[in-house]
Amino acid sequence: MDLFLKIIDSGISIFERYRQTIIRAIVKNEITNEPHDTSTLLQKVLANPEKAKTLTNKETHALAREIEDIQQDSKNSRDEKESIEKRYRYDVRILNVLATSGLKATSIAHELKNDRNSISVNYDCILKALRKYEVWDILSTPEHTTHTYDNVPLLLDRNRKINQKILTFMNTMLDEAEKDKFITKKLNIKKELLYIQEKWMRDYRSLNITLSIDDELTYDTTEDAISVILDNLILNSIQQNELSNQIKVYISIQMQNDMLFFSYNDDGIGLPKKYQNDPMRILVVHETSRRNGHGLGMWIVNNTIQMTDNNTIQMTGGQIKKIESKKGFLISFELGNKL
Fold this sequence. Notes:
With 339 residues, the protein is α+β, with helices and mostly antiparallel strands. It has 3 domains: 2-86, no CATH class; 114-174; 181-335, Histidine kinase-like ATPase, C-terminal domain (Heat Shock Protein 90, 2-Layer Sandwich), CATH 3.30.565. It has helices at residues 2-28, 41-47, 57-113, 116-132, 136-139, 152-176, 189-203, 223-240, 297-307; strands at 185-188, 207-213, 218-221, 247-256, 259-266, 319-324, 329-335. The strands form 2 sheets. Strands 2-4-5-7-6 form a 5-stranded mixed beta sheet, with helices on one face. It has a two-stranded antiparallel ribbon with strand order 1-3. The radius of gyration is 30 Å and the shape is elongated. It comes from Teretinema zuelzerae.
């Protein structure tokens, strides 16, 4: 009998260990159960071990089934836990690769920082010097611009455009690495979005971003959470519509139930055909329609939103509500404040 009670007690201990995991899964999936008697036979036996001696054959089988159910729940919880751990180990590997690449790029940007002024003015200085020595007009004649490889005006203009991209790269890398961006604080959301708007429209002339946000809207969050989400969404819009002369993006943010509710949409070509019936599929890691694409942008967006847990029971207070691609691309989501 003592051995039997120990087995029962062990089963209860295992069940309790994974009870919170089971509860969270039930809440997350909105499973509704009919009311039932919570005073199970197993609980009665544990409360009064002497009762085990008087169990009928039917009650003994019922008790065995309860223990089997607990064991199955425990196994399911362990399997789920292992699956989650495996997924997060893979997530960490991906983030380690991205972080290492980012550190290398930041290091290069710091090395180039001292040459920033030279990079930005080289084209104008060379052009001014060629005109001063009366060489520019000669180099610009048809006979000296026939071949691309020795067309000086064309080569200089290409170099100017490349230098502009280098400056954009430097500014981006040096700006994104500031540690203050990771501190949770009360932020003026309109101010944060105006900065993101100015940065992107400065670097991409074909991009037009329209904001709809209350001037006084504030929220406890971090700069990096907002910028990571919106930078990836904007970059996604640019990459999907790289052949367009102009891309219009609309972003609206408002407070709903103590969370920030975002609506983001562009007027581009929308999602590729293979995602039309299942748009949420784009959130899966490595899912991409672009040749040589890494498929990490929307995965990062989803992970960042889910990290902003605003509920002690639900695993993801922040969550993506909707993705559509009827006219352009639209995504709406909630952002919590637990970081």
